[in-house]
Amino acid sequence: MSQNQDNFDSPPKLWEGIDLDNKHDRYSWLLNRWFWKTKDKLNKIAGLGPHVIQDEGVNLTQRGFLNFVGAGVTASDNSVTGATDVTIPGGGSGTALTVTDGMVTVTDTDTITVGDNLILTDLGSNNAKIEAADPTAALIVTDGSTTVDPTSTLRIGDGIDLVDNGSGEAEISVAAIPFGGYVHVVMLGGGGGGLTSTAAGTPGGGGGAGELVMGMPIPITPGGSYSYSVGAGGPTDTNGGDTTFGVFKALGGKTPAGALSGVGGGPGGAVGSVSGGVGTIGTLESIPYYGGSSGGARATGTTTNGGAGGPTGGYLTTGAGGTNASSQGGGGGGCGTIYGTGGAGGNGGATGSNAPSTSYGAGGGGGGGKTGGAAGGAGANGTLFVYWPGGSIVLTGSGTWVAPT
């Protein structure tokens, strides 16, 4: 037989060089033909296939079959390149990594930035942990004198935030205090205007102070809307406006309107009744309501001075009374409030002074006595101050206030 019996890499040619009458030739040819047809299967059984499978450069035990499993993984024969192609799809469509600190959720579309001294470790099963790069490094916390070593425990209480600033340092700051459903308000009605004199012997009295509501607690619905209005100071011969917050109110001070002096706002507002007398301090109505002080009383003749406006308890300075001059009586001074003095009364024949704009709720001074009239001064606007744990606001004018959430 002309073909080498040991050539198993290609099939023998049918009948070539074979003597069919020779049993030995016929047997050799049939054995060679059978072996060539079954050599691939024999190689698989014997572990002698053409593929050597490795994991990270390390040979795995050879088997007769190589099976690829898993979603999206495919294996196919490539007759052009003479290779087996295994296709594994790329990443990017995995389950979202969720990181929470109690309020914030970070999805797989966000970027998590970890500082130089922190390590972000994938724990598998869509979990990760953040830890110190060097847990033995000392944590230095200073307030100018105190250092915390790495064996100590630093406890951060409620309302305090500990933040890594990425520079090997931690910053401790006061956290935002959640709104508790209550606010406290300070309200003061507008001050009354001083009265215009009608004659040389009838000067005008000073205006009264607005009613004071000091630190009143009011239940509030977080995010709710509440109407308010800050009482305006009364112009000449005009009462001060009321300050309101929701259903609560602080009454404005009064102008004298024929009386010796303007009455303070509220049921506890004082009344001055003595010619040229100093205004009277308002009284406690019910905590936290306090009546406004009265204005200084006008003179009742051409030779009498006007009285000073009434002070507020603990604040003894107030609008001075006007003096008489040239047979013209002095006007009464405007009363003061906890924020400052009222307007001064007009000296004989002069107009009364306006209350300073920062003396919220104070009364205007009365005009001095003069034939033909000297105008009284204007009272100051009231005020409305709202405060709660973590915040405060001064409201002006009128409108709607929305509570924090």
Main attributes?
405 residues, mainly beta, 3 domains, 6-stranded antiparallel sheet, 4-stranded antiparallel sheet, 20 strands, disordered N terminus
Task: Outline the structure in words.
This protein has one helix at residues 23-46; strands at residues 54-55, 58-59, 74-78, 83-87, 99-100, 105-106, 118-124, 127-132, 160-164, 170-174, 182-188, 212-219, 225-229, 243-245, 248-250, 284-286, 289-290, 383-388, 391-395, 398-402. It is mainly beta. The chain has three domains: 1-59, no CATH class; 102-173, no CATH class; 182-405, no CATH class. It has a six-stranded antiparallel beta sheet, with no helix packed on it. The protein has a four-stranded antiparallel beta sheet with strand order 15-14-13-20, with no helix packed on it. A hairpin with a 2-residue loop joins β7 and β8 (127-132). The longest helix is centred in the N-terminal third of the chain and has 24 residues, at 23-46. The chain is rod-shaped and about 165 Å long. Residues 1-9 have low confidence and may be disordered.
Describe how the helices and strands are arranged.
Blueprint (H helix, E strand, L loop, with lengths): L22 H24 L7 E2 L2 E2 L14 E5 L4 E5 L11 E2 L4 E2 L11 E7 L2 E6 L27 E5 L5 E5 L7 E7 L23 E8 L5 E5 L13 E3 L2 E3 L33 E3 L2 E2 L92 E6 L2 E5 L2 E5 L3
